[in-house]
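Q: Given only this backbone (314 positions), what sequence would you predict?
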């Protein structure tokens, strides 16, 4: 039976998909299975008032107490000319390249049972969210780091909209999400508050990546995206970025055959000139247990031209 999940809004139409064989990736939650950035040892929950080593009080942070289930996560990916991608990144970040191209896209994710530890699952929250992501590298105090920069976040949750950037990282735009899901078929449309379409995806679970993808196998794509578990996004203060890590406790990922895909961000020809962006692939994860973890705030130091966990002195 077809399940239609209406969280405000409207769907759309069809397009393409060519194939290259590669199996579904199912990765156990073990140290051998995950790259180092997904292996950060468990830390005790950080409480509401934190002090850093430099003695400055940090913002209230509930993030390290939150866990739940990723009900469905679609990663819609594009490969992009590095020069064009660099223009939309703030100072200090640079595109992480794969075979000479930058990688960007949209993570469309539905959470359920989202709650602080020790709270029963039935009291957990459910929400639809989307994050435009760009794979990046940056120089930090102690060397080169990698993750994703997030220029835009959307949510259907009023709680996320109100608390984002205050109690937990990330400033959210409130939008409406309509999903239509039946078995292996998924359609999802995200609309802004003014009714304009922010993103749309329609596809089905497949067995291979498209021939147009830069990645040879699903495993190779999964390895690349697993290193983007740490995301940074702008705050209301220029040159100051909030960080968060989405840590998946088990990992199962499948390729998707794309029928139709659109995002207003990556289709903007002012940001990205004609021919600088091409659709790469789509991947889906479902029923994944996860935790949220805060990462240190970053500040851009214009004198040293790098990012630091220490706020630069004037």
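A: Predicted residues:
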């Amino acid at each position: 039976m077809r399940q239609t999940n209406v969280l405000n809004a409207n769907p759309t139409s069809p397009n393409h998909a060519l194939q290259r064989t590669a199996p579904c990736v199912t990765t156990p939650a073990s140290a051998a299975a995950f790259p180092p950035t997904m292996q950060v040892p468990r830390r005790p929950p950080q409480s509401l008032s934190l002090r850093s080593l430099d003695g400055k009080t940090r913002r209230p942070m509930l993030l390290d107490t939150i866990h739940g289930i990723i009900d469905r996560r679609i990663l819609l990916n594009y490969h992009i000319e590095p020069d064009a991608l660099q223009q939309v990144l703030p100072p200090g970040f640079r595109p992480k390249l794969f075979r000479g191209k930058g990688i960007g896209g949209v993570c469309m994710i539905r959470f359920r049972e989202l709650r602080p530890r020790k709270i029963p699952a039935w009291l957990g929250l459910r929400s639809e969210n989307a994050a435009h992501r760009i794979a990046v590298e940056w120089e930090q105090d102690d060397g080169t780091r990698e993750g994703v920069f997030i220029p835009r976040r959307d949510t259907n949750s009023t709680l996320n909209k109100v608390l984002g950037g205050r109690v937990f990282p990330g400033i959210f735009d409130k939008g409406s999400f309509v999903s239509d899901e039946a078995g292996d078929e998924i359609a999802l449309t995200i609309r802004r508050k003014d009714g304009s379409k922010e993103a749309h995806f329609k596809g089905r679970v497949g067995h291979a990546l498209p021939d147009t993808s830069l990645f040879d196998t699903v495993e190779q794509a999964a390895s690349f995206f697993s290193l983007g578990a740490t995301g940074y996004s702008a705050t209301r203060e220029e040159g100051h970025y909030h960080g968060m890590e989405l840590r998946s406790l088990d990992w199962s990922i499948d390729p998707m055959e794309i029928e139709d895909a659109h995002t207003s961000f990556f289709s903007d020809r002012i940001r990205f000139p004609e021919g600088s962006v091409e659709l790469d692939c789509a991947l889906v994860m479902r029923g994944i247990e996860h935790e949220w973890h805060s990462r240190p705030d970053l500040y851009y130091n214009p004198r040293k031209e790098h990012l630091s966990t220490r706020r630069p002195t004037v």
